[in-house]
């Protein structure tokens, strides 16, 4: 069944791949990016099946304007693939105020604004699927990515709450948790803080660990996302890639072990 899918961050990476796969599958796509010219190839190739719009998700009013244009053009929005965002590398002490605000403005507030923009229409039609791209970094943490982790953990909690808020309206929510892939996320798309030398050993340790990561092929994710969007009862969370569960499982088990070990202290604090 053909759906209307709004994709943020469709200029490259997952967003571009998912927009193209959706179009190839017969869906109609609203593809958005900060630079409209980055979407020109999509428009040329897929014609009336795609609507390309300029969008910086940090502009709340623009998010609402884009959704209004999309609904006027296609009549509805069935799916939101909230993908726009970037990674910021830096130890917490190294991150400037502007850098911290920039990460949260894009990864958190940008996602909040576009979700808020699609909700009234989905609530009115009593159907919809909101897919928020998180990361394995929304379920566990590495050094040198503290502000990025803060943004993804924020969206994990927000979406878990959102899923409960909108379930009665027939709206589904899925948090997508990719592991490492061969995208530009850690390369040209990333922002890096000015380093403090004392942290160089920690940085080097993380860099050495990152070299061992089993990075997936982003082109392999498109079919999985299409399968997700076809599910009548999609999951709240979906990992992508072989490495995701390998790092999330031990991190979760360690957290549970620590909670259990502190249970006597927790109960002693009760009364």
How would you explain this protein's 3D organization?
The chain is of the alpha/beta class. The protein has a single domain (4-243), classed as Rossmann fold, CATH 3.40.50. The protein is built from nine helices and nine strands. The radius of gyration is 19 Å and the shape is globular. It starts with a strand and ends with a helix. The model has no long low-confidence stretch (mean pLDDT 96).
CATH architecture: 3-Layer(aba) Sandwich
Tell me the CATH topology.
Rossmann fold
Structural class: alpha/beta
**Number of domain modules:** 1
Termini Cα gap: 56 Å
List the helices and strands and how they pair.
Elements: E1 4-7, H1 13-24, E2 28-33, H2 40-46, E3 50-54, H3 60-74, E4 79-82, E5 88-89, H4 97-125, E6 128-133, H5 146-166, E7 171-178, E8 191-192, H6 200-210, H7 221-230, E9 237-240, H8 242-261, H9 263-268
Parallel strand pairs: 1-2, 1-4, 2-3, 4-6, 5-8, 6-7, 7-9
Summarize the structure.
The chain has 9 helices and 9 strands. By secondary structure, the protein is an alpha/beta fold.
Provide tags for this entry.
271 residues, alpha/beta, Rossmann fold, 7-stranded parallel sheet, two-stranded parallel sheet
